[in-house]
Amino acid sequence: MLRLKKLLKTYKTGDQALKSIDLEIPDGQVLALIGPSGAGKSTMIRCINRLVEPTSGEVWLDDTDLTKLSSGELRQARRQMGMIFQEYALVERLTVMENVLSGRLGYVGFWRSFLRKYPQKDVDEAYRLLDRVGLLAMADKRADELSGGQRQRVGICRALIQDPKLLLVDEPTASLDPKTSRQIMRLICELCAERGLAAIINIHDVALAQMFVSRVVGLRFGAIEFDGTPQELTPDVLTTIYGEEDWEATIEKVEDEDEDEGAAA
């Protein structure tokens, strides 16, 4: 269970990125975080694992308040939070396998990681994960030889090999074409279901969020404007979050694509 209590982030400029956020995410739930640029979506994700320090408030992962941890304790706690980045954050010159295994750096000593001497069980798990996402044949390829969708799958494997309780996913489809975007969203949701993982997915594509998740939270100016199911994202709600637009067209697009997926199945 992840619980945010009165989470506030104010920058030195005086800008409030987050305004007293209260939110609970149970184990196994995948939540899409939507809202306009500057709404505080990325800040919220980064405050959870303290890549950005909250100004005040609490972040509870099970029975641990992450905001109260020392730097050493935080390093230990971050093992439980897998991060998937928009720009993949892979080491281009390393192989796919080496990038996946880098997710175990928090568990192995400095010299073992420096020499890339990982335990066999970690190597076996990396192969299993690569097989699960369809990249087993590319284990020895360099990261810079991969397509965007392949890189994102490597990033997913790297996060999962941490054996986390929570996934924090920042714009996983922003640089991908529509078909690959749907494949990546489907894969993340399937893996979370298989592992009972909670996840927060920061995503700009409202239609994509509606297609794949059971809960949507909408931010505007650092505050929660909506918290509900995809079906409750009416044109009026979307106008409140984003402003005036032809939201009926977005909703119709989701319904049409749902019908197409059902026919294909």
From TrEMBL:
Nucleus is among the record's keywords: no
Keywords: ATP-binding, Cell inner membrane, Cell membrane, Membrane, Nucleotide-binding, Translocase, Transport
Gene Ontology terms: cellular component: membrane
Family annotation (PROSITE patterns): ABC_TRANSPORTER_1, ABC_TRANSPORTER_2
Gene Ontology MF: a single term: ATP binding
Gene3D superfamilies membership: P-loop containing nucleotide triphosphate hydrolases
Pfam families, alphabetized: ABC_tran
Domain of life: Bacteria
CDD domains: ABC_PhnC_transporter
Residue ranges occupied by any ABC transporter domain in the UniProt entry: 2-246
PANTHER family (UniProt xref): AMINO ACID IMPORT ATP-BINDING PROTEIN, PHOSPHONATES IMPORT ATP-BINDING PROTEIN PHNC
Protein known as: Glutamine transport ATP-binding protein GlnQ
